[in-house]
Write a structure and sequence with these properties.
Blueprint (H helix, E strand, L loop, with lengths): L2 H8 L3 H8 L5 H15 L6 H25 L1 H6 L12 H20 L3 H20 L6 H21 L4 H22 L3 H7 L4 H5 L1 H25 L4 H5 L1 H15 L4 H28 L1
C-alpha cells in the first residue's frame, strides 16, 4: 500500500479502515477449507446453526489474530516502507479494544457449538496468536502461519462431529504446506528489511532463490495432501476433476514469483490462492451434493 492510498483510506469511514487493517478480503484463503471440512463431516448437510457458528468463529478468530499481529508489530510496521503507514488506519487503543471483543466473541461462539470446541477454543487462540511472535526467534515462522490457518478445517470438523478424525489432519497438513509456501513467496518482499532488523524467516536464512524452490516443493506436498484428503474423506470423481485447476493456479503463482516483480507477486498471491481455496470448496460441495 502506498502512502497516498493509505492517506485516502485514513480519511474514509471507520469500517473501511478497520477492514483494511485486518485485510478482511484475505479471509477467503482459510474459510473455504473450514467450510469444505464441515461439508465433508456433515455429509454435505450441516445444520444451519452449526454453519452460522462456524462462520462466526472463523471471522472472529481471524480478526483477533490479525489485530494481535498488528499490535505485536506496531513499532516494526512503522519502520518497514511497505507497512509504514498501516498504524494510521486505527488508533492503538481501539485496536486493543477490538482485539478483546473479537477474542471473547470467538470463545463464546465456540462454547455455543459443543463441549469439545469450548475446551479447544483457548488453545486455538493461543496457536493463532503465537505465530505473530515467531519471527523474533525462529526461521520457521512460515510454518507457524500455516499451522494457524490449519486450525480452521480441524475446528470445523470438531464443530460438526465433536471429535478430531484423520481426514481433517490430512487436510490440515496440506494447508500448513500451502500457506508456508505462499508466505515464503510473499516474504521475498521484506527480505532486506527483515535482515536489517534481525527478524527471522527462511527467506533471510536461505536466500530468495532457494526459498522459492522450497515453496515449490511445499506446494507439491500440498497438492498430494489434497488428493490424500479426497481418499480419506471418500470423495469422488467431481472432487478429483478439480485438482488440475488447483495445480494450474499454483503453477501460475510460481511463474509470477520467478520474475521477482512485486506487483506480479502481490497479484499472484491474492488471485492464485483465492482461486485455490474457492475451487477446493466448490469441488467438495459439488461432490457431496451431486
Amino acid at each position: 500500500m502506498t502512502a497516498s492510498s493509505t492517506d485516502a483510506v485514513a480519511q474514509s469511514n471507520p469500517v473501511t479502515r478497520f477492514l483494511r487493517l485486518v485485510r478482511f478480503s484475505h479471509t477467503i484463503f482459510a474459510l473455504p477449507f473450514a467450510l469444505g471440512a464441515l461439508l465433508v463431516a456433515a455429509n454435505g448437510r450441516p445444520a444451519p446453526r452449526t454453519l452460522l457458528l462456524v462462520l462466526a468463529c472463523m471471522v472472529l478468530a481471524r480478526t483477533a489474530a490479525m489485530l494481535f499481529n498488528r499490535l505485536s508489530d506496531w513499532t516494526l510496521d512503522q519502520t518497514n516502507p511497505r507497512t509504514a503507514t498501516r498504524h494510521r488506519l486505527v488508533r492503538k487503543s481501539a485496536a486493543w479494544t477490538l482485539l478483546t471483543v473479537s477474542a471473547v466473541g470467538f470463545l463464546i461462539a465456540s462454547a455455543a457449538i459443543n463441549r469439545t470446541t469450548a475446551l479447544l477454543a483457548p488453545a486455538a487462540l493461543a496457536i493463532i496468536f503465537f505465530y505473530s511472535l515467531t519471527k523474533r526467534f525462529t526461521s520457521a515462522t512460515h510454518f507457524f502461519l500455516g499451522l494457524a490457518l490449519a486450525v480452521a478445517p480441524a475446528g470445523a470438523w470438531v464443530a460438526q462431529t465433536g471429535r478430531l478424525d484423520f481426514p481433517p489432519l490430512v487436510l490440515g497438513a496440506g494447508v500448513v504446506c500451502w500457506v508456508a509456501g505462499f508466505d515464503l513467496i510473499y516474504a521475498t518482499q521484506d527480505v532486506d528489511f527483515d535482515r536489517h532488523e534481525g527478524l527471522r524467516s527462511l527467506v533471510v536464512r536461505l536466500g530468495v532463490a532457494q526459498s522459492l524452490r522450497l515453496a515449490q516443493w511445499l506446494h507439491v506436498i500440498m497438492f498430494l495432501a489434497l488428493i490424500a484428503f479426497g481418499y480419506a474423506a471418500n470423495l469422488g470423481a467431481i472432487y478429483y476433476a478439480a485438482m488440475p485447476l488447483i495445480s494450474a493456479a499454483l503453477l501460475y503463482e510460481h511463474r509470477c514469483a520467478r520474475t521477482l516483480d512485486l506487483a506480479a507477486i502481490n497479484r499472484a498471491f491474492f488471485q492464485s490462492n483465492a482461486f485455490v481455496s474457492a475451487i477446493f470448496l466448490l469441488a467438495v460441495a459439488l461432490d457431496r451434493w451431486c
